[in-house]
């Protein structure tokens, strides 16, 4: 399931650049009281709000989407492939997928959907607010050690939770398509978005362990990906970079399985979750949620 990206307002196309529709203390649907704007997006904005219908004044995230702007963008932007990373997001599809996952019971490691509603040509999604920030920020802090990476045990614990959330999506025939550290609170010929999710999980684990980026997309047209093919895969990359993997144990094998160049040989989400390098998600104190 791919979500509309949050982008700085200064990087939006001029035709879409705008100020937030709702100021702090604005009341939406006679229930959601705006605290602050979290991000501007291509089709609207994302807000942190108080849910006045809850006795404890719960904080939630309210995603505001202009359907007219979204439909106009979808109808006018020419994309090279329907599953391309450049394809515009369709909020109508997001609504149907979100509701289907909610009916399926949701998942502990997927951000909880609370509500959605439409007023005129404006669509709103309400989700849980994750006050702890995103995974990118955690990695940047390097667990307070200035390393810009996580320990092997913490990295695999994080991946186990994210992979568990991805498995739930895949079990309901949904691919995330935009897995990245910022979304954990991501070729030629036929495209399989679920297989692409596995590659993204591998890249995520690589960054958690090393603090460095690898290749975000397994696309044969990318020079960096071609270089990875020619040099022999992620194991060779780790060796050539001088990365100390002596304490990783079977984690190197897990990485190699997720970052297998040939999509037909790349591991499934079930193989990832069954690997002995991953701990049981219920045993870990860090609680991650996939957006």
Automatic annotation (TrEMBL):
Coiled-coil annotated residue ranges, if any: none
Keyword Transferase: yes
Top-rank lineage group of the source organism: Eukaryota
A GO-annotated cellular component: nucleus
Record's signal peptide: none
Pfam families, A to Z: Pkinase
An annotated Gene Ontology molecular function: ATP binding
Domain Protein kinase: 32-291
Keywords: ATP-binding, Kinase, Nucleotide-binding, Serine/threonine-protein kinase, Transferase
Name used for this protein in its record: Unnamed protein product
Organism: Phytophthora fragariaefolia
Lineage: Eukaryota, Sar, Stramenopiles, Oomycota, Peronosporomycetes
């Amino acid at each position: 399931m791919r979500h509309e990206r949050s982008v700085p307002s200064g990087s939006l196309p001029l035709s879409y650049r705008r100020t937030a529709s709702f100021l702090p203390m604005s009341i939406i649907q006679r229930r959601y009281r705006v605290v602050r704007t979290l991000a501007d997006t291509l089709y609207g904005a994302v807000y942190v709000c108080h849910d006045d219908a809850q006795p404890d004044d719960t904080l939630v995230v309210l995603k505001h989407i202009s359907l007219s702007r979204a439909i106009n963008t979808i109808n006018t932007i020419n994309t090279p492939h329907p599953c391309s990373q450049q394809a515009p997001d369709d909020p109508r599809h997001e609504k149907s997928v979100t509701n289907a996952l909610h009916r399926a019971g949701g998942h502990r490691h997927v951000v909880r959907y609370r509500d959605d509603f439409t007023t005129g040509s404006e669509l709103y999604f309400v989700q849980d607010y994750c006050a702890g920030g995103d995974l990118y920020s955690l990695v940047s802090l390097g667990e307070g050690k200035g390393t810009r990476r996580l320990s092997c045990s913490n990295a695999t614990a994080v991946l186990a939770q994210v992979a568990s959330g991805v498995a739930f999506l895949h079990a309901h025939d949904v691919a995330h398509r935009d897995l990245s550290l910022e979304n954990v609170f991501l070729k030629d010929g036929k495209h399989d978005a679920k297989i692409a999710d596995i590659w993204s999980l591998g890249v995520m684990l690589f960054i958690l362990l090393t603090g460095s980026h690898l290749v975000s997309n397994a696309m044969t047209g990318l020079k960096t990906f071609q270089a990875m093919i020619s040099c022999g895969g992620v194991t060779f990359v780790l060796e050539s970079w001088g990365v100390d993997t002596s304490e990783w144990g079977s984690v190197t094998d897990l990485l190699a399985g997720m970052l297998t160049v040939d999509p037909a040989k790349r591991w499934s989400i079930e193989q990832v979750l069954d690997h002995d390098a991953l701990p049981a998600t219920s045993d870990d104190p860090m609680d991650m949620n996939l957006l």
